[in-house]
Amino acid sequence: MSVHNEVKKVTTNTLLRMKAAGEKIAMLTAYDFSFARVFDAAGIDVILVGDSASNVMAGHETTLPITLDQMIYHASSVIRGVNKSLVVVDLPFGTYQGNSKEALSSAIRVMKESGGHALKLEGGEEIVESVKRIISAGVPVMGHLGLTPQSIYKFGTYAVRAKEEAEAEKLKRDAILLQEAGCFAVVLEKIPAQLAKEVSESLTIPTIGIGAGPHCDGQVLVMHDMLGINNEFQPRFLRKYANLHEQITNAVQQYVKDVRRKDFPNEKEQY
Ligand code: KIV
């Protein structure tokens, strides 16, 4: 007989129930074991292994360069730190847009090699066949509409999306299509709060907003932004919960000083 500690894991059904009960969903990105372990223990519902790793971990200007192998590396590190949270992994640019067969083989690689629990794909109508094919293989999919960073060169700017009627109407149609295709949730990034409210009310699956106002069923932030590690990025939607850039700088400066003045290590800090 094996003895397991009963941990009530967050599943895609948990998120659906949370929406139905009017409970907000808290999601954060993470890219490695140590942060994932802290976030999981702190009670985060969903950890997103975002392709924003391309920006905040690798220093690229966009999310486009990150590869499937690199996403698998980040996701498998996160998974090893998680006990309870649902872990959603971004399929990176160029691994699902070609056709649904390619999308399915990318999805299978991530699920098999990382141990992630679900995938996120950017786009609506254009990728819905891929979404259906992945879901039909038993893999839960989260959608992502609005400012979809993998399309940055089409948009030309990171400004708010869907302010115009035609784009807003398409976004509403896409949200319904993704729900009908079987997605368990959809991220709404940088769109007007009123549009996010309408979309959230029109869906039975939860919406998770980033720069999409308070009416979404949950919120997501990039960990480096909300922890103030990255202090150059100051969009209006961002609330900083810490200033780690300053704290880390102070700690490192103090360490440098202590080493130079031969204060570290002291008598107690040696064998
Ligand atoms: O990659 C990412 O971090 C994301 C979030 C911004 C939603 O997709």
Automatic annotation (TrEMBL):
Record carries keyword Cytoplasm: yes
Entry GO MF terms: 3-methyl-2-oxobutanoate hydroxymethyltransferase activity; magnesium ion binding
UniProt keyword list: Cytoplasm, Magnesium, Metal-binding, Pantothenate biosynthesis, Transferase
Keyword field contains Ribosomal protein: no
GO cellular component, one term: cytoplasm
Primary localization class, coarse: cytoplasm
EC numbers: 2.1.2.11
Annotated compartments: Cytoplasm
Co-factor remark: Binds 1 Mg(2+) ion per subunit.
Pathway named in the protein's UniProt entry: Cofactor biosynthesis; (R)-pantothenate biosynthesis; (R)-pantoate from 3-methyl-2-oxobutanoate: step 1/2
Enzyme class name: transferase
Superkingdom, taxonomy of origin: Bacteria
Reactions this protein catalyses: (6R)-5,10-methylene-5,6,7,8-tetrahydrofolate + 3-methyl-2-oxobutanoate + H2O = 2-dehydropantoate + (6S)-5,6,7,8-tetrahydrofolate
List of residues binding 3-methyl-2-oxobutanoate: 51-52, 90, 120
HAMAP family the record matches: PanB
Family: Belongs to the PanB family.
Function in brief: Catalyzes the reversible reaction in which hydroxymethyl group from 5,10-methylenetetrahydrofolate is transferred onto alpha-ketoisovalerate to form ketopantoate.
Record-given protein name: 3-methyl-2-oxobutanoate hydroxymethyltransferase
